[in-house]
Amino acid sequence: MVAASFGGLTGCRTPGTRRHQAKRRRVAGTALALILIGASIVGPGVLAQRPPQGPMSTNRYTPESLGYELAWSDEFEGPVLDAAKWEVRGVGPRALGYVSAEAVTVTNGLLRLAALKREDRILLGAVGTQGRFMVRYGYFECRAQVQRSPGVWAAFWIQSPDISKGEDPALFGAEIDILECFRKLGPDIVSHNVHWAYGPNQKSTRGMQSHLPGVGEGFHLFALEWTPEKYVFFVDGLKFYEVTQGISRIEEYLILSMEIPSKPEEIRNTVFPDEFLVDYVRVYRKRG
User: How far apart are CA 69 and CA 286, in angstroms?
Assistant: First the structure.
């Protein structure tokens, strides 16, 4: 285990509650997508997606231009997953799949999180920094290529260890979805969201769809700025959303995962094997 030496970033925390088992969606009306989010401890609830939108301006931001400096990173340059930074997260059943170390590999400078079939199982890759690296506030960035298929989806997110213990996100944290790629939303759309208060009164900002031509092909930058006042979501340096709801003020951990829904009909067009490829993950802190 590694403990960071700068303020607000620490290691050696006990992992928290696992994320709710699945996020499901359907299209209604004029293609307004609905994401169905269910925690294993409560019944499912329907939360509307916001309509797709382009960037808020043509300005392109970098963490440095926003006053940040590099604090932690993984470039995935070794032959295996760095156990000082990550662990395979939640090995065992997850919706229609099964999280397995077999679906997590590091080769040619890339973390590869797969969805693949092994006999009667669908194996999924997922890694997290729980117990190794915790952080509160900063700029979070990954360079990645999303999966090719509908049904399964790539995800880059931040999770609270205490999210199911209470309803105030300032005290108990939030799930911050920096990237989710639901292919059925369209080839040029990725989604972001914030959830808090896991349980019967679970809340959400609603899914925020970012439309950017070509985002479903090749490598792109997916980023979040998290401050005490707001969350700001970026794709390729372009600002798409700012939200002030559900602000966590506690340390949380990072997750990269290949996700799968819980209804078999939702993966009928999935082509296995598929992969979520990650070039790097970088975390920045404010200078000074």
Answer: 6
Q: What does pLDDT average to over the chain?
A: 87
Q: What pairing do the DSSP bridges indicate for beta strands 189-196 and 203-204?
A: antiparallel
pTM for the whole structure: 0.84
Structure tokens at 215: 């985002």
Distance CA 85, CA 74 (A): 8
Tell me the C-alpha to C-alpha distance, in Å, between residue 216 and each of 179, 255, 283: 12, 20, 23
Per DSSP, the three-state class of 92 is strand
Separation between Cα atoms, residue 121 and residue 123, nearest integer Å: 6
The CATH number for 9-286, chosen from 3.40.50.300, 2.40.50.140, 2.30.30.100, 2.60.120.200, is 2.60.120.200
Report the SS3 class of residue 251: coil
Q: Where are the domains of the chain?
A: 9-286
Residue 175: strand, helix, or coil: strand
How does strand 97-99 pair with strand 121-124? parallel
Could you report the per-residue pLDDT of 233-258, keeping only the tens digit for each?
999 999 999 999 999 999 999 999 99
Question: For the segment 110-153, what is each residue's pLDDT rounded down to a tens digit?
Answer: 999 999 999 999 999 999 999 999 999 999 999 999 999 999 99
Specify which residues 243 forms β-bridges with.
231
How many whole angstroms separate alpha carbon 92 and alpha carbon 83? Answer: 19
| Helix or strand (DSSP H, E) at 259 | strand 253-259
> Among the listed ranges 11-25, 80-94, 261-275, which one has the minimum average pLDDT value?
11-25
Q: Which of 240, 253, 227 is nearest to 66 (CA)?
A: 227
